[in-house]
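Note to self: the last two entries modelled the partners one at a time, which told us nothing about the interface. This time every component goes in together.
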Amino acid sequence: MNTQTDDPVNHETLDCTWGNPFGLWGWFTIVNHKNIGIRYLVTAFIFFLGAGVLGVLMRVQLASPQNDFMGPDFFNQVFTVHGTVMMFLFAIPMVEGFAIYLVPLMIGTRDLCFPRLSAYSYYVFLIGGIALWISLFLGSAPDAGWFNYPTLALKEFSPSHRISVYATVISFIEVAALAAAVELIVTILKQRAPGMTLGRTSPFVWSILVAAIMIVFAMPGIVVASVMLAMDRLLETAFFQPALGGDVLLWQHLFWWFGHPEVYIIFLPATGIVSTIIPVFCGRPLFGYTAVVVAIISTGVISFGLWVHHMFATGLPTQADGFFAAASGLVALPTGIQFFAWLATIWGGRPVFKTPFLFCFGFISLFLIGGLTGVMVASIPFDLQVHDSYFVVAHFHYVLIGGVVFPIFGGIYYWWPKFTGRMLSERLGKLNFWMMFIGFNVAFFPMHNLGFRGMPRRIYTYLPDLGWDILNQLSTWGTYLLALGVLVLLINIVWSLRRGRPSGDNPWNADTLEWMTTSPPANYNFAEVPRITSLNPVWKDGPHPAPGVRGLREDAREIIITTSVEAEPQAVVELPGPSIWPFILAVISSIAFIGSIFSPWWYVAGFCGGLMAAACWFWPIKSTVSGKVER
Amino acid sequence: MCKGFRIPIVALLLMACGGPQSMFETAGPDAARVIVLWWILFAICLFVTIAVIGVLLVASFRRRSEGELPVPDKKLGVAMGWGIGVTIVLLTVILTATFRSSDAYAEQGPVALTIDVVGKLWWWEVTYLGENGEPLFRTANEIHIPTGVPVRFRLRSDNVIHSFWVPSLAGKVDLLPGRTNYLRLAANKAGIYRGQCAEYCGIQHALMAFLVIAQLPEEFAEWMEAQQLPAREPKDEMTHRGKNVFLQAGCAKCHTVRGVAVAVEAGPDLTHLAPRHTLAAASLPNRRGHLGGWISDPQGIKPGNLMPATPLNSEDFQALLRYLENLQ
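The predicted structure of the combined assembly is written out below.
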């Protein structure tokens, strides 16, 4: 026990060292993970709202047959932007935002390992996102669907700049996501608080680690594909042009090599959120922690063997299809294990139905349906009927809204006190949940049936007398309710920021390390971190245990590096502080990317400019001598 | 809280899945086999849904006494073991059913007829092939097949990717530029089955439909015979004038009428337009009013499609309609 009465830590110096610069100029130099994380979350959420509005617009158009609310040209841009934004500009950045904010707090360190890289990653993401939205307002947004199949996406059939906008925006997101992924992997493996062995690392951190590694392996597929596409369009390289010896299926393989793991890249962190919330509201540790971690890892591995199930209709050899069908069924097993672990935890605990738990409850029931229809579409003959029909639209919205958006909403309610120090209203929270839950089911359940009735996806209109009218209308009404439900969260947020009840440091009596510090956390996260001895440090050691390691300088941004597996202290490293160069490099990369829509020479210009900016970024700073680690 | 329970019930209520383009209105063995598979999948998934939601509800709301001891981990572990075991068994059943069904799907055998289908922007070009693969005649957006015998579709595209889907008859197969796919199917009931492009293919993907008309073999043979004839010659003066309008107003630049005009295959072959059920890739009924509307304002009906409007004075217009109606 720490018996010292006088606090050995000088909080003021520490706060100053880790503090952010002020002013507008200062805003662009901030590198603190909490600021970057919040920026990521807010930006991704705004993109989510925008893409949600596009979803509502589509439902308005489809509410009745032969509706003329939108023409096909605009509708095709709308559904493409809806999908692209939701997948690339909301889902990945949102979970990355959670990770960037929470991971250092959950593993007991003061910042991410490459703080400037996270700032760079954010600006690239922000500029790429804004570019896509501007293209929509200019009527020049991509219109070949979020998976953008050639030859439709080639110059011959899409001569305008629309598809080049797609290729460019994808490049932005690849860069941003890879930067964040690399940073999260290194941080998680090298900066866990002393004693936080891999076996004491929370499931959320595990899920982020696995998702980040998956990003590193999956993204190259889409990097290669989007560069080839840009070259086909700019330089007529003909990778995907069959008339010149290219192959249309090459794109599909490369895209889904990325695209299928992508689903798990956003789904696994969502399960991590659920595995964090459920134990807290059941008042007991997660049952089957080891099984859950093994399930997360094996899901990550298996998800790389599923991509061909998006291509059953392309006429690949039956044997190949069979392998991927089997793998697609197999991935249900680790997911099932996670389900059983959650059910056992609830069974063995005393659940309290606060809003975060309610969203997890909704997640379990909705994702269950999405997962089961997923097993169905892995069944080749059945898939050949429902593939590219509204059945699939229903399926992946159950997976992505039920399986990802619901946990994210749960996560927002759960960590809001950590972010702001205030509570969100429980009453509005429950209203929010039920409106979304009911609205979602009314909107998307009928779509299964529409698929059975032969309604293909991505159609801007349909004829009467096909038996699709009533179900479409029902679905549109459900969408309104779902959208209003989302609106309740916004009201709740505004209300909480103005007059929300102060939350105290640990309002949920939660177990993980981020709740051991103040809410919201100080610039330096933790004055001192205890030696971690369990998976549930707050429950085991109380809110103010004795520090485990001492001797970090207060006047320099020093952090402790620990070994990857056992988390034994290994070294002390000084992190770089605020800098304007990540922002400038992001602007230069953006100019190169956006310029490449028009001419390949912008790549060259961007490369040279980027090189100079990077040189300034990495210009050696006078370093202070590292202190020694003291136990 | 009972919403979770209600889902499967709603599922049952919504299971009435009729309609002219429904996969449940099966008209052939291939589509029927999928429905068998569907009921196996549905039964298993319904069981899992009820079981999981049931456990979730009981776990959440079971009565817990004040001093109740925590559930021992061993007990939870055994329950989890059972869950995993059942999951493995059910997945094995699903995969076995899948592979049995897809083996039957892949079965190849002799076919009575091969029909070449090329996906166009945004319609279907259909060519009937003779025994040695030689083209017999060409038509569009309406495919006749004989009942009771397997036929084979040769599926190609010379532009973007499309997908050939007639839910009542079989699952979909893509038409890929640079590749050739085959689909073998049989209809065992005479009738009209609607199909639609299932792979997003650009601005008019939504209105790229077609009809498959399954006929008794003798009726089909008659149809084949009639289709191979060249276009009917105009009999009266008005029709004759219509033919001239067709040749001079630009129609013949894109549309072939065998024996009259050979176009470079940009648009559908109109040699036997009159008996077809629909126009504009199964988007309009083939009636005089719709035909006239389609000729004068194709961009209003299918914005972005490749057919330009043809401005004509009213007499020429009437004559053209008469001529097209004469193309029996």
